[in-house]
Amino acid sequence: MSRVSLAAALLISVNLCAADSLSDWFAEGKGYGKIKYYYIETNKELADFTKTSAHAHSLGGQLGYRTGDYNGFQAAVTMMTTNPFWLPGRVDTSIIGKDNGLLGKDPTKGFAVVGEAYLNYSYENFTLSGGRKVIKTPLINAKEVRMLPSAVEGYFADIDLKYGTKVELAYITRFKQRTSDSFMNIVEHALGAATRAVTGDDRQNVWMAGAKYSKDNYSVKIYDYYATDFLNSIYIQSDFKNSYKDYDYKFSFQYINQTSVGNAEDNLVLPTSPTGGEDISVNAFGARLAFARGGTSASFAYSKVLKDEGSHDSLVLPWDGTPLFTNMITANNLFQSNYGKALNSDSAYIGGTQGVRIGIKQNLSKLLPVEGWSLSLACARYTNGRFESAQRDLNAVLGYKKERFSLAFKGIWVNNPASATAQNVVTQIDSLTQYRVIASYSF
């Protein structure tokens, strides 16, 4: 959707209203926002024993306004901003403008952007919208783990059917990564300079269809994402939850299939292609058992990305989807959503990787005379015949939440973190440690 068509949609919505109705439309609206402070420090020890350290502070957040309802029409606009300060000589730009840096801008500079601007029309159980939106689906997601969420631009439809079924449809044209102020073609952002070599064109789009069904203790969701002349991705997840005595438990299963489509089928098998002559063929699955009692919850998860010699078998997740149940704070393909990095991969998402994750969360008010505090611990191990050594992750999060305010202290320790190039060449560094302090207030 172009800026012209977006403006036209908003103008049309205005013309639908008489003067009195228009004033009510805005008067019945509501402002909203989030103020956020973020500190991050990242330390790495490379394979040659070289050590690096980078950190950053940033202050920013979101400020928006959503109108009231007029004959089913509603509009919203959200400004987003990140503003770094006290920057050192080596800056961790992952909370500032890392993606902007890949687009030729200064990644240490803050920015402001209209992250959302959309018009909704609702009628009974049907909603149609167009414009810029933050959406959350398994493979196209907001990934709100840094200062700002990622966002997309396009047209969206939601339908609530009978018997617990919901349908989501979308035609997505542009993508804005969370560390960028630029909305650009969604496939071009994924493949960067290799877009034409892979797809045969510079402008392709993504069609998304999803369905969710829930009844009693069972639910299932299925999504299909078709990126024209590039990639088709299918995501399936089923969940069953129940209780036994004082315990609540939930079992989940997931499956992901990805294949190259259209021009990419022919272009990727060429020896000069970004993958070195391999088409995309990915199959992955995972399972998770979670249970809770009182203020304590725990989970055990397993994932496997099947190895397929002769194909690009690592998961391709360029739009901030990090769906595997064994996902950790850093072992999550976080930077695959950066400009031109779609065919890279890391840790749990590399073809052939088997992952195991154990996590526990404790509401500390159940043990100590404190309110609002919680402690989460998680560890994971990833093995792969392509790795020299197993990757091991440990995450700790001390969190506090009271009404609209939240505070989190995060520690991440990783041994032998692994990454893979578009041609499935795996490299590992010795270690990564990271510390974060995040404070936010929503209104």
Care to describe what's here?
The protein has a single domain, classed as Porin. The chain is 10% helix and 51% strand. The chain contains 6 helices and 22 strands. Strand 6 (151-160) and strand 7 (165-176) form a beta hairpin.
Instruction: Write down how many β-strands occur, each being a DSSP E stretch of 2 or more residues.
Output: 22
User: Distance N terminus to C terminus?
Assistant: 30 Å
Summed up, the helix count is 6
For CATH, the homologous superfamily is named as Porin
Task: Please name the CATH architecture.
Answer: Beta Barrel
Uncertain regions spanning at least 5 consecutive residues: none
Q: Determine the mean pLDDT.
A: 93
Shape assignment: globular
Short descriptors:
443 residues, mainly beta, 3-stranded antiparallel sheet, 10% helix, globular
